[in-house]
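In this section we walk through a basic example: taking a raw amino acid sequence and producing a predicted 3D structure, encoded as discrete structure tokens. The instruction is simple. Fold the sequence below.
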Amino acid sequence: MMKQGEGHGKDMKQEDQASTGSAEELTRGVRIIRWVFVCFATIFTVCITIQIFFAGLAVFVSPTDWMRHMMFAHWFSALPLIMLILSFVGRLPRKIRLQSLGVFGLMYAVYFTANITAISPLAAAVHPVIGVWLFCMSITILTQTARLAFNNPD
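The resulting token sequence is shown next.
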């Protein structure tokens, strides 16, 4: 019986080898790009966490903290685009490239839902759900790419 998460690393390694030929064929530049991707993924994950914290401050402490929540998003909104580009340059597995594309799309969805409140409050209610989804996806991308960058599939 397999434990939860067991075998996942092997699948990522096989997919990585399929997209690059083999682990030994990765150039030094590709390995560096993967490390850079991990750094950006880490920063993005931390930023999403801070963003959720700012939302909590605004809801539970003071509504004046909404401005902090709104302005902070502008500081990291370009990260998903950078990560998407790096996922191709770093020859990351297709799964991670698609997840990076998903995060990029969700960033636009989160902006859209934040600004549609006057027109459709119900649609705007999806905004925090997207935030949680972004957090979950950022953790997933970070753990998968860190595993590849450390060349430790298990």
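Looking at the output, two observations stand out. Residues 28-60 form the longest helix (33 residues). Residues 10 and 59 are 43 Å apart (CA to CA). In the next section we compare this with other chains.
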